[in-house]
Write a sequence for this structure.
């Protein structure tokens, strides 16, 4: 059993490396050579362990989504309010662009943009991944309604769709090179629809 | 002079065909063969008239942006209110996905997603094109403030950034295969922030 451990560790590391590669430059622009180099694998181990490029890409999407859902769920549990949780998430979407050298955006959003029109299998994987992320925001908004931060007047589903739309929009603006300070000023406008008493706006 | 006419007509037609091609599948996935076929040009005329693929792509971005700005400016002049103009624009972003066989999205947003990280010249062209579109929405919102549809409390610039973010978000959701009916229910939530008296929401 112990002999399997290093291999499992290598699989996780290789998967993470491949995810970063696809996430940074996209599916089409990633060559087999890029993958072999970043994953530090031989061609035969790559095919043996992960299958072809398409299969590896699906594994990477899954890896990304599971990591995101687990990090966000923890942040929600630790957060003092729904307002704080959602605000910090939007702020993070914008701020990560400032800290990183590249504006990578969200791997799921990038993939939707690059491939969903042309590849039904990948489109379904993106849709399922986005659905799992939306579930975290659904829990957050339900919690906000219970705490009377958010009006119960509007269906949670609609508010989640609105929030996901706003997140996708911010990510696209960040990737398009929009001014970070200007985008920060968009956050309270997005929040205004969700939180009836958002300070500063009537 | 008259002998120049057919050539000019051909340039417009060829440019429109190339724009549709790049817009539908993106820059990377468009081959020289695709361009020659759709533009109905020989390789030498293509290079002679439009330069290389990169130069042609920039011409196409410019062609797309000018068309969009001129169509939108006309719609704004004809519209009975800012609320109607902005609502119809958002509705159009969603509805065009239902009518077309593909969900092409916005050529500028697609290009930002595909190339802005890797190509500074194209990033600048996208940014300038987006800026010209934003100017139309700036005019619309200023007009809405004058007509007291929109509160004068918030700077127009922030409201334009918010609106552009919402549009980018809707386009990405549409491309990702989101349910059309659900997205339609997001429109009043987006509008709520802009229009203090948006009906149905307090």
């Amino acid at each position: 059993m112990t002999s399997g451990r290093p291999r499992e560790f290598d699989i996780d590391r290789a998967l993470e490396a491949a995810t970063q590669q696809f996430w940074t430059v996209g599916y089409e622009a990633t060559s087999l050579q890029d993958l072999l180099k970043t994953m530090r694998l031989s061609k035969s181990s790559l095919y043996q362990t992960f299958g072809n490029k398409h299969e590896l890409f699906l594994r990477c999407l899954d890896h990304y989504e599971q990591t995101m859902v687990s990090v966000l769920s923890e942040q929600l549990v630790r957060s003092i309010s729904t307002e704080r949780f959602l605000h910090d998430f939007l702020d993070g979407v914008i701020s990560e662009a400032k800290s990183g050298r590249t504006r990578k955006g969200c791997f799921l959003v990038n993939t939707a943009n690059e491939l969903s029109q042309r590849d039904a299998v990948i489109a379904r994987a993106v849709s399922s991944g986005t659905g799992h992320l939306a579930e975290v925001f659904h829990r957050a908004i339900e919690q906000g309604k219970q705490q009377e931060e958010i009006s119960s007047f509007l269906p949670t589903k609609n508010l989640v769709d609105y929030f996901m739309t706003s997140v996708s929009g911010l990510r696209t603006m960040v990737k398009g090179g929009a001014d970070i300070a200007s985008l920060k000023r968009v956050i309270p406008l997005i929040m205004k629809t969700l939180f009836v008493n958002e300070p500063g706006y009537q």
Observations:
- Residues 1-6 of chain B have pLDDT under 50 and may be disordered.
- Chain B touches chain A through 54 residues (CB under 8 Å).
- The domain at 56-194 of chain B is CATH 1.10.357 (Tetracycline Repressor; domain 2).
